[in-house]
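Input record (one chain):
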Amino acid sequence: MDRMKTFFIYFLLFVGLFIILNVLENGLISSMFSTVKGTSINNDTMSIEVTDSKASNVNGYMNVKITNDSKNYINEAYAKVDLIDEYGFTSATKYVTIEDLNPGDYKDYRIRYKGNNITGYNIEFVSEIPDKSNIINILGWEFDATNIFGTGIDLTDINGYNLAENFSLSGILRFFRRQWNYGISMASSIPVWGYVLAALVILLNI
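The corresponding structure, as predicted from the sequence alone:
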């Protein structure tokens, strides 16, 4: 009986500690993020409503509602989001692809981004989005491989080799697939007696 009572007390302490830690964590996160205000430009067919926008000193998010105000079906459209830092410069740019939107319908989008001290934003609809094949994404930070940090360094053409491909998921998978195939080919080139000899050496040294 005493053992069950002790267990119940420890269980209540654990639950209480869990609740306190969650409250403190949520309070800390809330204090780190501040509301970000900006401008959104509608067009003749669609409208944008920012329902929530917050940022810390290193990252942030936006919740936007995009509505089809026209009488026509929208197969695909694009919205451009410029994120403005505390000095008034565009620190980062994100694009939203809007698909399959019937007349009068709307869709909610959550935009996450990395950026230092974002204090504002500008959202507008655009007719096209840039080619993303040369964009390197490292933990949410996006870099243009054709002009790293504005220095003019082009990682897509280093002696005819596209280094940026190694930073993409397909490039990484291609690299490991190439190494795997190379290992298989090397293993298949070793004769059976070589494996037998290696096994004997291992057994004799055990």
